[in-house]
Amino acid sequence: MSEPHAAAVPRSFSMHWGDGEIVEEVRFEGEHTTPAIQLMEFQTGDAAGSVALRFCHFSHAGRFQRSPLIVGEAEVEPLREAVLANPQVRELLLRIASGVAVEAG
């Protein structure tokens, strides 16, 4: 597995309920795929003004995969390191894990 890295952001996305930009992305190259957590900011449509986290993965060739993200135990530490380098994604994940709002920083 290689060192954690982030893809170029921002970049656009389009969903049925709105369009926007991926403004932060956590990813690293795992043994079988490249797991990713994307912070999506919606700018148009029903979701305009909201943010969302997308848990996904890419092939090693960079192609988006339309199957579930599966993270093995060996990938937890590299994923944790990548999350720590992305403060907005980190803050939302801390809110999920703790059940309370967390100050970014």
Describe the protein's architecture and organization.
There is one protein chain. This protein has 105 residues and is α+β, with helices and mostly antiparallel strands. 23% of the residues lie in helices and 32% in strands. The protein has helices spanning 73-84, 87-98; strands at 11-15, 18-27, 34-42, 51-58, 64-65. A 5-stranded antiparallel beta sheet has the order 1-2-3-4-5. A hairpin with a 6-residue loop joins strand 2 and strand 3 (34-42). The termini are far apart. The mean pLDDT is 89.
**What is the number of independent domains?**
1
Strand tally is 5
Molecular shape: globular
Low-pLDDT stretches: none
Q: Estimate the mean pLDDT confidence.
A: 89
**Span between termini:** 28 Å
Integer-rounded radius of gyration: 14 Å
Strand order, largest beta sheet: 1-2-3-4-5
Class by SSE composition: alpha+beta
Report the biggest beta sheet as strand number plus sense, adding barrel if it closes: 5 strands, antiparallel
Subunit arrangement of the protein: single chain
What's the order of the H and E elements? EEEEEHH
What proportion strand? 25-35%
**What share of the residues lie within helices?**
10-25%
Count the helices. How many? 2
